[in-house]
Amino acid sequence: MQTSCCFHKGCQLSYEVRGNGPPVVFIQGLGIHGRAWKPQVDALARDYRCLTFDNRGIGGSQPRGCAITIPQMAEDALALMDAQGWEAAQVVGQSMGGLVAIEMALRAGRRVRSLALICSLGRGSAVFPRDPGMIWRWLRTQAGTKPQKRRALLELLMPESALDGVDPAELADLFGHDLAEHSPVSARQLLALLQYDATARLGELAGRPTLVVSGSEDPITPPALGRALAAAIPGARFVEIAGASHAAAIQHAARVNALLAEHFALS
Description:
This protein is α/β, with parallel strands linked by helices.
């Protein structure tokens, strides 16, 4: 697998394509490199041509170029499809990437054969329930020693029962950075997330095969948000994975991969 670049709107978008078969575009969440899709690509590249990439301003996609917005990130993903000569693809989005996938489907519907939205939502400002406990948990990821910040982030991404078996170094390799550090563009991505609201238009996605997956223990995008998202998209399927948190695609990769393979086969 070789890293390639596509210049678009002032940014060299860094991407990788692996596998053979119908095309699939994978879109990551806030502050995470495209390589975090490795557990999915390793399993699905046998039957699908998988495109992963660093969102604008993250990892190899530099310089940032124009403003960071959800519509701009959707345009970037469509530009990468153009670079591959793909007229249409299955689109998978994780967290913020789910909003980007939704925007792609709303602006270029026929190019999105199906949607798979993992630990995501339809209105960005609903992220992070604003109770004091959740605010405190988020602040702990920003202050303290590096081990303390790593632990705080892991507590947001994984259920407590799974933390003892998690190696922060392995996650750092997937995410593209030390869990104690945050990309400078993450704040701009968060603002883009908070400003985006697709709820009034989700009904326009009727007829597009859509899978919505939530983790039962996810404190960032709780299952109630996933259920609401699926309910607003006519015909969408909702699946809640017991014992999973926000990093469900990593923690429960086999289950997520099976759901994606089934979803693609039916789309």
